[in-house]
Amino acid sequence: MNTVLLSTLCFGAALVLQPMARLDPVAHMLLQYPVLGVSGYLLGLKMPTAPDLRGPLLVLGITCVGFWMLPRSLDAALDSPGMHLAKLVTLPLLAGLPLGMSVPRVGAVLRGFLKAQSLSMLGVLSFLYSHAPIRICNSYLIEDQQRLGAGFLWLAGGLSLLWAVPLFLGHSLMPDLLLQRKKHHDLC
Amino acid sequence: MRTLSQIPDNAAQQSATKTAAVIKLSIGLSGVVFLLMMIFGLIMRAAQAGWVDLDNALFYQLLTAHGAGMVGTATFSGAAIMWYFLARHVALNATVYIAFLGLFLLGVVLVLGSIFIGGFGGAWNFLFPLPALSGGIWEVGAAVAFCLGYISIGVGFLLYYLEVGYKIARAYGGLLGGLGWRFVWHGDVSRAPPPTVIAAASVTIFNSIGIIFGAIVLVATIVNLLFPEFAIDALMAKNAILFFGHVFINASIYMAVTAVYEVIPEYTGKPWKVSRVFVIAWAVVVIFVQGVYFHHLLQDVNMPKWSMVVGQVMSYGSSVVLIAVTVYSTAVYLKGAAIKWDLSLRLLVLGVIGWGVGTIPAFIDGMVAVNKIMHNTMWVPGHFHTYLLLGEVAMAFGFAAWLVRGRAIRETSALDRFAFGAYVAGGGGFVLMFLWSGASSIPRRWAVHYAQWQLQSQLATVFATVVVLATALLVAGYLRGLLRRGTEQ
């Protein structure tokens, strides 16, 4: 399927998810956020990147993800129309896009490190959200917060499988994306 | 499959030279730190013997430094050994090793600073909630620095394993290929990965998982230290810490054993063969080394019953796999071969024997009925000192002696024979004192011992002095060998 079309579909899905995101932090952080990110990531795969830019793009993408992971940002995206708009713009363009332009093209060890780091940080987030003695998001109930903590753990488990299986088998579960990555890697 | 022969000669040679240099440095550093940590151990045993008056807070600082230092250095030296031999089979990037070394040393500085400047004495396994309950002896900052030191070391190891795992996966068609599972299926020996690759793939899998769990619990501990309202579930933290700790220390010896696979064939003239049993045994190790940690929690009555069963069964299973495969194979390879027994071979074989023997007290303690009486006694240090002092550390010194041996295998010199004999006698006596103490129900981790407990500590102090002197000779021999080889080149 055409990457731009796929990206647009992801963005559309994120908009459709908005009512659910308002009610449920799991849908907000573990469904809408990733779908917005993926919409930019897919576009990033198609864009040529100079090797010197990969590092700054990586830092930009990680910083943007980090910002939107803050409970305060999560709240603001629900309370303020401006922040809601900022979320819809920055998660695809300042998180997904730079990550798509950089992550598939950095060295295998750094890529693996980022994956391992993501897994351990998801574990830490799971701890924080499930053990916090107070409501850390004003917009959601404490039970929802604890469910989100469990969701982070499930996500970590799922990603571990997704990333480990190709490593064990010696080929990727996503051959198309990898082929595109290789093509761009050769071009750059 | 890509092999070393396909790598451009110049690049391969440059990388090999760089690797050899950093590995020699790593082994030299390991030897010196082993010696220093042994001196810490000697001081603690002398204090328990009533021969040295040691401040209690300082005792626990030494205990923490000794534990963290020995676990870290054992795993570090094991990693150096495995990297050296794995580089014979896949093209490893020496820069990654240098980054690993840098992060490891940064971690060591933080850990030592937290202990000797910050006064942290919460033991190497930082069990929740001890880091936060100092009774005023150390500040929160010291405990945080200790955890950050561990995180730095963990990140270094993660980079190390990513490079190892990636290169093995690329060369052998995925980690399953590196583990030898494809060979189990097709049975073609000519396409089987070498034993070192199988060991490296196995350790990469289980220690990477362990490190990720370690990172989670370390960050959670830091959050708890800084914001005590974030209380950790104590049982969950204990599970995560002991899983990480058990896997990490076991990885040290599973990495060091690659020296046995690569060096002993030089003496016997027979290559270490890969068989289906060998591959399956390593596959079992990958699973058992992760599942066996439950035997650390046999006294936690609120753990589920199945975990107690798993802990006990896997304690037995791990020992059987080890003894049946590596110890038995070593004996078979050595039997009947015309061998010149130099220092390196003696130490490597001692390492295999010490490893095998060291598991016996472990699976005795892994029985629930024994564990409820013995687990908090000196019996447990008796177990791990056997498989570390007479196992991993002996292998590391065997590798060190081999590194500086030169091409010709010479009979052991009188000085080397003396050093080896003293190491075996001192080490054997030292671990027996721990086991005797444990069998006498003397508790572990106590700074002050009653007069009735001091005989074992006094004898242990004498044996520890012998070990320290023998180790000093081994380290001096390695450094002398490095200088000699440097001059020859």
Automatic annotation (TrEMBL), chain A:
Membrane spanning stretches: 53-70, 82-101, 151-169
Keywords linked to the UniProt accession: Membrane, Transmembrane, Transmembrane helix
The organism's place on the tree of life at top rank: Bacteria
Protein name according to UniProt: Uncharacterized protein
Native organism: Tritonibacter horizontis
Automatic annotation (TrEMBL), chain B:
MF annotations from Gene Ontology: cytochrome-c oxidase activity; heme binding
TM segment ranges: 21-43, 63-86, 98-120, 140-162, 197-223, 243-264, 276-293, 313-333, 345-364, 384-406, 418-439, 459-479
Keyword Cell wall biogenesis/degradation: no
Transmembrane found in the keyword field: yes
GO biological processes: aerobic respiration
Gene Ontology cellular component terms for the protein in this record: membrane
Domain named Cytochrome oxidase subunit I profile: residues: 22-489
Keywords tagged on the record: Electron transport, Membrane, Respiratory chain, Transmembrane, Transmembrane helix, Transport
Alphabetized Pfam families for the sequence: COX1
Signal peptide from the UniProt entry: none
PANTHER family: CYTOCHROME C OXIDASE SUBUNIT 1
Name this protein carries in UniProt: Cytochrome C and quinol oxidase polypeptide I
Originating organism: Tritonibacter horizontis
